[in-house]
């Protein structure tokens, strides 16, 4: 496989993709809605790289074959989305310490013939707070609603980044107990009513996506106020009703698109070794989400 090249005078669109293009992708079930190829491809275009990212629909029964296919087909890597993050963590040749801790891989990097499993969700979340609100968790009190895959990455990242406290609230209490241990020793289970004394409040549930998610948000946005940062990991819509209400209550708000962009940016960096063009990725993703609504 060759790096970017081509004949002077030809546009990338005329010569790429080609038989020499380096291929990555995203595997999931379903996958056709995924913004990952758009994010990756906008980065490759901005970097002038002859790389291409596509979606691979993979049913759970065929995850093992799909992972083996990365090696067989010579792909440079693979982004992994729902519902395969946990299964892939058991199928790669090596996991980073973080991926092992989370038991979830969202990015496979092929190094020679070895497949390395990494997880960029938590770092992507932290980068989105830094860029979107100049927020760093060091010494801050944080509350996370949810205990699923996204919440677990966030809880671990906040704890590792020096948060003073990571309080976890979840509809199913037993899952909150397990998730809170990821931020040990500062993680604990708590109540949504604690939100007003927190510096950061994160909704890591699908409630903001709308009707089918069901139920009111666990943290009433009216209880939030100026000086707090409220984050909803949902990015469809870009601004959820909970986030809008939190903003009206005076809180600074950050939507989920930032995490999506930054976790993909880190994947691009792992694969290519180049600094990701976050601005180009952000522009492509926000235009697409706005178009979809
Ligand atoms: P998940 O593993 O299925 O976990 C869902 C979590 O939400 C669970 O804790 C669940 O509670 C809770 N929940 C679901 N419906 C609820 C309701 N009606 N009321 C209260 N709690 C509810 O999902 P996930 O992968 O963590 O994703 C969660 C959300 O984050 C999704 O909307 C997803 O789109 C978003 N997300 C965003 C990014 C990003 O980059 N911005 C990345 C990943 C995910 P129980 O334990 O009680 O079931």
Descriptive labels:
293 residues, alpha/beta, Rossmann fold, 2 domains, six-stranded mixed beta sheet, six-stranded parallel beta sheet, binds NADP nicotinamide-adenine-dinucleotide phosphate
Offer a concise description of the structure:
Helices cover 38% and strands 18% of the residues.
Question: What can you tell me about this protein's structure?
Answer:
The structure is a single chain. By secondary structure, the chain is an alpha/beta fold. The chain has 2 domains: 22-119 and 259-292, Leucine Dehydrogenase, chain A, domain 1 (Rossmann fold, 3-Layer(aba) Sandwich), CATH 3.40.50.10860; 122-255, NAD(P)-binding Rossmann-like Domain (Rossmann fold), CATH 3.40.50.720. The protein has 11 helices and 12 strands. The strands form 2 sheets. Strands 2-1-3-5-6-4 form a 6-stranded mixed sheet, with helices on both faces. It has a 6-stranded parallel sheet with strand order 9-8-7-10-11-12, with helices on both faces. Helix 2 (36-47) crosses helix 10, helix 6 (121-133) crosses helix 7 and helix 6 (121-133) packs across helix 10. The longest helix has 16 residues, at 257-272. The chain is globular. Bound molecules: NADP nicotinamide-adenine-dinucleotide phosphate (NAP). Residues 82, 146-151, 170-172, 175, 204-207, 209, 213-215, 218, 233-235, 256, 259-260, 263 line the site of NADP nicotinamide-adenine-dinucleotide phosphate.
């Amino acid at each position: 496989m060759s790096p970017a090249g081509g004949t002077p005078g030809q546009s990338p669109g005329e010569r790429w993709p080609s038989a020499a293009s380096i291929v990555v992708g995203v595997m999931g079930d379903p996958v056709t809605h995924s913004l990952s190829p758009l994010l990756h491809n906008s980065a490759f275009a901005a970097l002038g790289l002859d790389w291409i990212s596509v979606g691979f629909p993979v049913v759970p029964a065929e995850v093992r074959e799909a992972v083996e296919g990365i090696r067989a087909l010579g792909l440079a890597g693979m982004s992994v989305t729902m519902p395969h993050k946990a299964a892939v963590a058991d199928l790669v040749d090596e996991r980073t310490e973080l991926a092992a801790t989370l038991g979830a891989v969202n990015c496979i990097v092929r190094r020679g013939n070895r497949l390395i499993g990494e997880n960029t969700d938590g770092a992507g979340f932290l980068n989105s707070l830094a860029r979107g609100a100049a927020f760093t968790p060091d010494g801050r009190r944080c509350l996370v609603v949810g205990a699923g895959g996204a919440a677990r990455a966030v809880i671990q990242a906040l704890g590792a980044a020096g948060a003073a406290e990571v309080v976890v609230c979840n509809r199913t209490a037993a899952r909150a107990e397990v998730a809170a241990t990821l931020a040990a020793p500062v993680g604990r289970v708590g109540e949504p009513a604690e939100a007003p004394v927190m510096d950061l409040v994160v909704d890591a549930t699908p409630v903001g996506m709308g009707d089918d998610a069901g139920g009111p948000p666990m943290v009433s946005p009216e209880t939030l106020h100026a000086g707090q940062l409220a984050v909803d990991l949902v990015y469809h819509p870009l601004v959820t009703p909970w986030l809008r209400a939190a903003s009206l209550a005076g809180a600074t708000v950050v939507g989920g698109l930032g995490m999506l962009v930054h976790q993909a940016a880190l994947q691009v960096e792992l694969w290519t070794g180049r600094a990701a063009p976050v601005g180009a990725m952000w522009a492509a993703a926000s235009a697409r989400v706005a178009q979809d609504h």
